[in-house]
Amino acid sequence: MDFALLFLQKTALAILGVIELAMFLRAILSWFASPESRLLDFLYSVTEPAIAPVRALCEHFGWFEDLPIDIPFIITMLLLSLIETLIEIL
After folding, report:
1. What is the rounded distance in angstroms from the CA atom of residue 80 to the CA atom of residue 77?
2. How many Cα atoms within 13 Å fall on the side-chain side of residue 13?
3. Alpha-carbon span 79 to 90, nearest angstrom
4. Rounded Cα gap, residues 83 and 51, in angstroms
5. Engineering a disulfide at 58: which of 4, 15, 35, 63 sits with its beta carbon 3.0 to 4.6 angstroms away?
6. Which residue blocks in 1-90 are alpha helix, DSSP H?
7. 13 Cβ partners below 8 Å, 6+ apart?
8. Rounded CA separation 59/46 (Å)
9. Rg of the Cα trace of the chain?
10. ∠ CA 58-14-80 to the nearest 5 degrees?
C-alpha cells in the first residue's frame, strides 16, 4: 500500500476514533455533569457538527419526533462505525 494512502487511512481512522470517543463521553457526561459544564460544552462543540446533518434530516422528515431518546445521536454513532469499518477494509 502506498505510504500516502496508508497515512490518510490512519489519519481518518484516528479522527473518527476521537469523534466516537467524544460522543461517548458526551452521552455519559450528559447524565451526570451540570449543563453549564465547560467540558460538556466542549464535547457538544466537537460532536454536534457530525450529528447536525442527521438531526436535520430526521427533523425534515418528522422522524422520531416524540421519542425521549436522541435517535440522531445513535444513528450518527452507527454511521461513524460503518465508515470506520469501510476505511479499514480499503
Report:
1. 5
2. 13
3. 17
4. 14
5. 63
6. 3-32, 38-61, 71-89
7. 84, 87, 88
8. 21
9. 15
10. 20
Instruction: DSSP letter for 1, please.
Output: -
Query: In the structure grid, which three cell numbers stand for residue 25, read together?
Result: 463521553
* Domain definitions of the chain by residue range: 10-89
Q: 48, 15, 14, 18: which is closest to 30 by C-alpha?
A: 48
Burial class of residue 4 (count of CB atoms within 10 Å of its CB; 0-12, 13-18, 19+)? exposed
CA distance 77 to 65: 19
Please tell me the pTM assigned to this model: 0.89
In whole angstroms, what is the distance from residue 60 CA to residue 52 CA?
Answer: 12
Distance CA 28, CA 11 (A): 26
